[in-house]
Design goal:
6 helices; Rossmann fold; globular; seven-stranded mixed sheet
Length: 199
């Protein structure tokens, strides 16, 4: 994703934050949709006692969700939007948050699980290429599994401002990066969860 596209994404969510405040709407979710996706992640990954990177963490809502569930894990959240990170750090000072762009700054750690939940949803130029590049970079830092959640091209209702991914294309992309990948297309209507595993 080029710098102009990144600026657009940062500005888009900064405006949403100003408009909606500390609510799921500021990161483009409904409360119900956010909860469904977070529950889907918990069904697929055993997070207890593990290290987690929440890539594109926004306001840290997933950390808040795991905290409510009593899950104890070593959590790190990163996002390119510093305003969202500031809200996250203010809400959850005990967790680790950082404003970071992995295209220009390197990750220093490896994590048991890396989660990308609804990160690439905006229909912007170069989004699909950015997904492949990001998955490839992040998988290097995965100790066990990378989970990618996105909107499915088979969704019955589509929004022209959002991007939808073909499940078979995503699985093909995953198999170019790892020999072990699984796609779940039935957890949430209109969504898919792609799991890319280290051997």
């Amino acid at each position: 994703m080029d710098d102009l596209a990144k600026e657009y994404v940062v500005d888009f969510f900064s405006k949403k934050l100003s408009l909606f405040g500390d609510t799921p709407a500021s990161v483009g979710w409904t409360p119900e949709g956010q909860k469904l996706r977070y529950e889907g992640i918990l069904r697929l990954l055993p997070l207890e006692g593990k290290s987690i990177l929440d890539f594109g963490c926004g306001k840290g809502d997933f950390y808040g969700f795991t905290k409510q569930k009593g899950i104890k894990a070593k959590y790190t959240g990163i996002d390119i939007n510093k305003k969202l990170i500031d809200v996250a750090a203010g809400n959850y000072p005990e967790a680790k948050f950082a404003a970071l762009d992995i295209d220009s700054e390197k990750l220093q750690e490896t994590f048991d699980f890396i989660i990308l939940c609804g990160v690439f949803n905006l229909a912007i130029q170069g989004a699909k290429e950015a997904v492949e590049n990001t998955l490839r970079k992040l998988f290097y830092h995965t100790g066990k599994t990378l989970l990618f959640n996105c909107l499915s091209a088979h969704s019955k209702i589509k929004d022209t401002n959002l991007i939808y991914f073909d499940p078979l294309e995503m699985l093909s992309t995953a198999f170019q990066i790892t020999e072990s990948a699984t796609l779940y297309h039935n957890l949430i209507d209109g969504d898919m969860f792609l799991l890319m595993n280290k051997k």
